[in-house]
Amino acid sequence: MTGIRSETAPLSGRTSYQALTLRRKLVLAALSIALVLALIGDIATGPASYGLWDVARTLIAPAEADAQMRVIVWSIRTPAALMAIVVGMALAIGGAQMQTILNNPLASPFTLGISAGASFGAALAIAFGVALIPAAGEYVVAVNAFVVAMATACLIHMASIRRGASIQTIVLFGIALVFSFNTALAITQYFANQEAVAAIVFWTMGSLAKATWPKFFMTALAVAITLPIFLRRRWQLSALRLGEARAASFGIPVRRLRLETLILVSLLSAMPVAFVGTIGFVGLVGPHIARMMVGEDQRFLLPASALTGALIMSLSSILAKVAVPGVVLPIGIVTAAVGLPVFLYLILKNGREIW
């Protein structure tokens, strides 16, 4: 009987793991299908109403479609809809990695000041034409956003490796950065001219109205560069969730991993802010929803976070166009309205552990 038990126990464990893996793959497949449907729905939604079948036919065979519909679908709506997807992916991936390397459920590029820093850098270019890197050219807004976001990430890294630094210290430091950059942004608006102030205010609300194919490709390139790097380090990142001491015992260079991850997160945060504006709470809410569905394993958490963030942004884009008839709301307002209750729930749920 003992021999039978010892043989069936590993088999049962292997079967359970295979069932869990299959369930996670099914979740990823379901998210992918939902995202495709949301994409088609986003393209079909707008002032001019088109059926889903007509939109799908225009996407598949644009040469056979009506000229006006082809222009609306391919030149206006599709870039904006695809931009919503890659922005959601970038923010959710960045949020998942911030929560991983800081071991903090409330960490995200938005809550720890990276997005606020990117906003301030971009506002300098919009208001005064300041180029932090002179050779930036027409992409000065994006370059400024990335430079300040990366500097902010380095400050957070320095705070996290400081002797005696705790989770509370890092969170409070990130909150201080948010307020500091918001103050700097307000000062920038005060001294800017009226047109620049209007541009900055509209831009900080977040909008997909000015999405273009080049902006989409640049943001998609940032995701395409960073996601494979994170997936290649999936075991190191998963081990880091067990704690710094245990990860270091496995031979993982914790400090270098944290610094490199923060730099990549800066890139993922800067691109959406530069092209779309400030989008809040997607990087916080998306990873938590993905974590509830697939767990902490980075092999599944990363793609699930990307798909969840993209789905949130795509559905928010649809809601922004249908919430008020005849008016397209800034998408940043919609994501904030959806994400704020979840943010408060996380604070109340995890307050005892965090504070």
UniProtKB/TrEMBL annotation:
Membrane topology: Multi-pass membrane protein
Subcellular location: Cell membrane
Keywords, ordered alphabetically: Cell membrane, Membrane, Transmembrane, Transmembrane helix, Transport
Predominant location category: membrane
Gene3D superfamilies per UniProt: ABC transporter involved in vitamin B12 uptake, BtuC (1.10.3470.10)
Segments passing through the bilayer: 26-52, 72-94, 106-133, 139-158, 170-192, 212-231, 262-285, 300-320, 327-348
Xref: InterPro entries: ABC_BtuC-like (IPR037294), ABC_transptr_permease_BtuC (IPR000522)
Domain of life: Bacteria
Keyword Transmembrane (UniProt): yes
Family named by the database record: Belongs to the binding-protein-dependent transport system permease family. FecCD subfamily.
Protein name according to UniProt: Iron ABC transporter permease
Lineage per the UniProt record: Bacteria, Pseudomonadati, Pseudomonadota, Alphaproteobacteria, Hyphomicrobiales
